[in-house]
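Progress narrative, Year 2. Work on Outer membrane protein beta-barrel domain-containing protein from Pedobacter mendelii advanced from sequence curation to structure prediction during this period.
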Amino acid sequence: MDEAILLNSVTIKGKRVGIKIRGDTTEYDPAAYNLRPNATVEDLLKQVQGMQVDRNGNITAQGKQVRRVLVDGEEFFGNDPTLVTKSLRADMVEKVQVFDKKSDQSAFTGINDGRDAKTVNVKLKRENKSGNFGRVELAVGNLGFYQGQGFYNRFHNDNKIAAYVFSNNTGNVGLSKRDRQQYSDGGVEATYNALDVDIWNGSYGGRGIPKSTGLGGQFSNKFNEGKVVMNMNYSYNNLNVLGSDFVERQENLPSAYLLSNSVRKFDNNDQKHNFNGDLKILLDTSSTLVVKINAGQIRRNTFNNFRAEIKDSIGNIINSNSRLFETFANKYAGTADLLYLKKLNKERRTISIGLNLFHTTSASSGTLISNTNTGVTSELNQLKYNDDHSSIINLKSTYTEPLTKSSTLSANLIWIFNSSRLNRETFDQARNSQISVLNEALSNDYRLEQVFQRGGLNYYFSTKKVRFQAGSDFAYVNFDQNDRSKNSFLRKEFYNLYPSAEFAYNFSAMETFSMKYNGYPTLPSIEQLQPVINNTDPLNLILGSIDLRQSFSNSISLNYIAFKTAKDIFMSGNFSFSQIKNPISVIVNTDSEGLSIYKYANLNNVSNLRYSGSFSYAAPLKLSNISFTIDGSMDGNRLNNIVNSKLSNNLLNMYKLTFGLGKAKKGLYNCGVSFGVIYNTNKNSLQPLLQNESWGYQTRPNLDFYLPFKMTIHTEVDYLFQGKTTSFTNDFSRVLWNSYIQKDFFKNSDLSIKLTLNDALNQNRGFERYITQNLVIQNTYDTIKRYFMFSCVWNFKKFNSVK
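Result:
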């Protein structure tokens, strides 16, 4: 007779799988990662495979910058990534999803329109969808440093109310990275502030010492049993940046090169108001109406004091310049989107109609006082006024028809009207006089109108394993240029193709490959066309050209992602390549006195190239559960322009390889270290002997050590070395060492006090080196250095019980 043994219980232990791949969506499980109490979503993203978060909170996923962070699939604070990741707690999250979010029209029809954006969706746990939670931090340091911020969130299932306020001078300057693309119709991007007298975009990238204050509120809810979805938010941000920088520049010419340096002191202020509102209405079981509004105002003051000189290749000074440039700008912008979606009487037979309205208007003024010495002294005392506006009407309709169970054909018609005006006026002022006279050579009133008539067909095929799409649009464009100052009119006509293709193959549920191709033209902007000199830098004059034509880009991208569950191995890779034919570039003419004139022009029979790639590999080592990662990336450009009647070809490449090790023991420590190698190359056809190759190294060890009595010690080091080049013969190195000790109180560690030491060795120095066309530039600047700070943080939460 068989014997039976009755067991009271059986416990099976195993490691929780942290990653799942579902088609084009990658999911991460927060419970699989070792996180400290009250860790934020940002802390979680720093640990997950295939994602990186930089010091400013910018997120990169699978080689692409994350543009949106959603909460339960809905917008939260108007697509503001850093606000979501810094304010939401990781222990509230059920899973984090990463995918390419398509436009509303594309998601409805299933046809890719090329307007996708890398997106993170934070899906909350069921028990954390109803209640109140938030965070309050007050901090004070030596040398006048301070930081205060508060977040409050009230969630009741679909009803979400949130608010925040912050003020600091520690570099947490704002909650949005949209900058120049603050407003966009989604199809025709509109630059935000490119036409003002001073084109500073109101952002802070580490240059200078900032002071920032902001507040905002968000409301979203679903009504009428989910048939009406509303999402609204408002934000205010005031940023002031004070500091100085030192710019060294090498300008490559056919027969020689010039060396210049300039010292600048600046005091800039930017004040923004912004409102976003989304409304989705399910009219019936087959039709939906979507309304989106985005409106805002910017007021901006800039003050810049320059001193510069230019030397020839043997060190002789050939000119010097000092100038004072002070500006003010006031800008309003708004966009409205209406989208009607209708499912017809057959599955996948749909019609959608979208209308986008965009308008922006700006008035900016400035004072330029300049003194230039080229052996002969010339002075400028000028008042400058820019008045610009832009309006866009975009109407698009799409019809989809199922051909078979797996294939669909779509047809679309698009009509776009784009009108812009740029009126520039410069007045000369005599010394010690209030009389000003219009300088006609530096003044111009220009209008540009474009009418697009576009249509096309697209074929789509999809099965469980394979997804394929191919098609093209054809467009006819009327391009009218009106120089009101000279009473001249010029009409151009363009015929354009917009080919596109996409292929994706799922090897398995955890392994997928995709490829995309897009071809598209780029039309010249009004600033590039307007035939007037911009002399805000008297030694580098910029001139538009009415004869510009469009360029055309062919872009292809490859993506691969896989997770081997049995071995806990994550792999991803991507590559992108773009060819820009007949690119809009510049013709540069530099005379013997160092004066350069830059004129926009199409370069015939040459192409600019852009290419980039990255890969990521993460796996556990067999020894002691140590995690191992290796990340690599490369970025390259081939840029062309004309310098003193000779073609200048610039080949720029950057390669980076980073190795990382990490080990964690719950309740005891979490540590890691990374080491990266960077190699830069630059080859310029005008000066082939100045190759400007350089090596760089970066290492980042970090440690969280959990002590008894709810105490934590955190320390991290960021060492950067960048080697000398032919143009810049000094190495650059710095060690940033940041640490804090923290004590938590109460059962759930809701209250914490923390002592922070920023830049312990006082070595933080602003540094940037880059190359563009025939210029090699190095910039060193003021930035935030060593300080101590004492802070108190209160994390609060109260969730309702879930039945």
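DSSP finds four helices and 41 strands in the chain. The first helix runs from residue 41 to 45.
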